[in-house]
Design goal:
Layout: H1 3-28, H2 33-39, E1 42-43, H3 48-53, E2 58-59, E3 63-68, H4 74-88, E4 92-96, H5 101-110, E5 120-122, E6 135-138, H6 140-153, H7 158-165, H8 171-185, E7 199-204, H9 217-228, E8 233-240, H10 253-256, E9 259-265, H11 268-271, E10 276-283, E11 293-298, E12 302-307
Parallel strand pairs: 3-8, 3-9, 4-6, 4-7, 5-6, 7-8
Antiparallel strand pairs: 1-2, 9-10, 10-11, 11-12
Helix pairs in contact: 1-9, 6-7, 6-8, 8-9
């Protein structure tokens, strides 16, 4: 990437930050601190210990970044969140770029979560819907399908269309796919963009969208939040940690998130065992536990937390 391109991206980023700040200020107007505290609706994480650590669950409409290195349990946290939503009657949009959804279903079953009890629709499927699904799955094939539809709908020259056609891992493609999922779930009014009922959105992982351009992660994070943040949508966004630097792969997601669940493990070469931990680094609109938990991932139960002594 040239210096000129980076300069242009920074200018765009400033505009995006100003727009996001303006939106947040509008949300805050006429809302006193006391009223805000009384009006917080809690959304269960699906993990009792974590709900207690958050005074009953994450505030509705929050964007939660789940960060950590491979093997720490990030995807299992997402499974619990989706499962809790299904049991509560919330429709779920599940974006997966790291695994096929059938593998997620298989793994979740090992932890006592049977997603196949519910109606699942893959956005890439050509099958005609006969009834409204409970879960809409968006995988790499679904993103590719949406990218092609976007390419075909934009009048442009042949060369540009060819390049756009395969931009599956693009933020604009992701935004379009999420909107299409809302339509399939029947949660949008005619011509509307904001769901009429509460939806759980999971993106596992965001890192895939800037894998070849981590310097753009902050810009892309802002673009996504401006386009997709809704009061009736509570979101989990997974972000990988680089094994070499032990820091987020692509700075930006933690910055725009309302909450951050960070996971890590002891150095296995030194400890000679796998020992996992989690801490709530931040959470807006609620008090939360400030100390770390030890994580256990158990057959039939899944992700569990135990306070450190």
């Amino acid at each position: 990437m040239s210096n000129k391109e980076i300069e242009l991206s920074e200018e765009e980023l400033l505009k995006i930050e100003q727009e996001l700040k303006s939106l947040e200020e509008k949300e805050k107007k006429s809302v006193t601190k006391g009223k805000l505290e009384r009006d917080v609706t809690r959304i269960s994480t699906g993990i009792p210990e974590l709900d207690r650590a958050l005074e009953g669950g994450v505030p509705k409409g929050s964007w939660i970044a789940i960060t950590g290195e491979p093997g720490t349990g990030k995807s299992i946290l997402c499974m619990h969140f989706a499962w809790a939503g299904l049991k509560a009657g919330d429709p779920v949009v599940y974006v997966t770029t790291e695994a096929e959804f059938r593998d997620i279903v298989r793994q979740a079953r090992m932890f006592g979560m049977d997603f196949e009890q519910y109606r699942i629709h893959d956005i890439s499927s050509a099958k005609e819907l006969t009834e409204t699904p409970n879960i809409v799955v968006i995988d790499i094939f679904g993103l590719l399908k949406i990218a092609r539809q976007i390419s075909e709908s934009i009048p442009t020259d042949v060369e540009t269309a060819r390049k756009r056609r395969f931009a599956a891992l693009d933020i604009q493609t992701l935004i379009a796919a999420i909107q299409e999922a809302y339509k399939i779930l029947g949660v949008l009014k005619e011509g509307g963009k904001s769901p009429m009922r509460h939806v759980r959105l999971i993106i596992d992982s965001m890192s895939a969208f800037w894998a070849d351009k981590p310097a753009m992660a902050r810009k892309y994070s802002y673009e996504l939040k401006i386009a997709a943040h809704r009061e009736n949508v509570t979101t989990y966004l997974v972000s990988q940690y680089a094994m070499t630097t032990k820091s987020t792969f692509g700075f930006g997601l933690e910055h725009i998130a309302d909450g951050v669940f960070h996971l890590w493990m002891d150095d296995v070469e030194s400890s000679k065992e796998v020992v996992r931990y989690m801490i709530i680094k931040k959470m807006r609109m609620t008090n939360h536990a400030r100390t770390a938990f030890k994580v256990e991932i158990l057959p039939g139960k899944g992700f569990t937390l135990e306070p450190l002594k």
